[in-house]
Design brief:
With 193 residues, the chain is an alpha+beta fold. It has 2 domains: 5-103, no CATH class; 106-186, no CATH class. The chain has helices spanning 5-14, 24-33, 38-53, 75-89, 147-163, 181-186, and strands at 20-21, 58-64, 67-70, 100-103, 106-107, 114-115, 120-121, 124-125. The strands form 3 sheets. It has a 4-stranded antiparallel beta sheet, with no helix packed on it. The protein has a two-stranded antiparallel sheet with strand order 5-6. A two-stranded antiparallel ribbon has the order 7-8. Helix 1 (5-14) crosses helix 3 and helix 2 (24-33) crosses helix 3 (38-53). Bound molecules: zinc ion. Zinc ion (ZN) is lined by residues 108, 110-111, 113, 130, 132-133, 135. Residues 108, 110-111, 113, 130, 132-133, 135 line the site of zinc ion.
């Protein structure tokens, strides 16, 4: 049994930067795993869709009059609707057909990088590290629930990060293509000298 996890990983790696079309999955199954049988491609694709939709913050939707609209359905229902659309189509979806995966993004409070996790949720830290500025939520910014102190931690971290050249922090993860600290910081109204 080959592992199709690489397709899920590819989709999850792309999602913080852009929406990913459903067509990625059947084309990955055909190109990377040489699955030719149409029913098998559909069934395996739907299983992968379900797995992707079970990841936190991932949604599915389609463009309606030029605006992206998420389907407000449970993962099971999304899979069922995709299955129906796919059968109606009578072949694997092509670019733009049926829909796209979409992901919630959370700007880092220090550097404004779009994180694919929520730094804090209802008072509980994620313990994740921002790959861009290196702050770890729940460790570096634990200020005993004091909002003013937390803000100060973020400002200090940002100042120090900029002072050190505003360089990409993570060794294990590459910055997105075209990444620039200056335009990112501009979102916070911060100008880099
Ligand atoms: Zn950051």
């Amino acid at each position: 049994m080959p592992s199709y996890a690489s397709i899920v990983d590819d989709v999850m790696a792309e999602l913080p930067e852009d929406r990913v079309g459903l067509w990625w999955i059947p084309s990955g199954l055909r190109d990377d795993f040489a699955i030719a049988d149409a029913d098998e491609v559909r069934e395996r694709s739907l299983a992968l869709v379900h797995e992707i939709l079970s990841r936190p913050g991932v949604h599915f939707g389609q463009f309606v009059s030029g605006r992206f609209e998420r389907w407000t359905l449970a993962p099971d229902e999304v899979v069922e609707r995709i299955d129906q659309d796919w059968r109606r189509l009578g072949r694997p979806p092509d670019i733009g057909e049926i829909g796209w995966f979409d992901r919630d993004l959370y700007p880092c409070p220090v550097c404004a990088f779009d994180l694919d996790f929520e730094p804090w949720r209802q008072g509980s830290p994620s313990h994740e590290i921002c790959p861009c500025c290196g702050i770890q939520f729940g460790y570096h910014d634990s200020a005993g629930g004091d909002a003013a102190r937390t803000r100060q931690v973020y400002e200090n971290w940002r100042e120090r990060w900029i002072g050190n050249g505003a360089r990409w922090s993570s060794v294990g993860r590459r910055p997105p293509s075209g990444w620039a600290a200056t335009s990112q910081l501009a979102k916070l109204g911060v100008r880099v000298p």
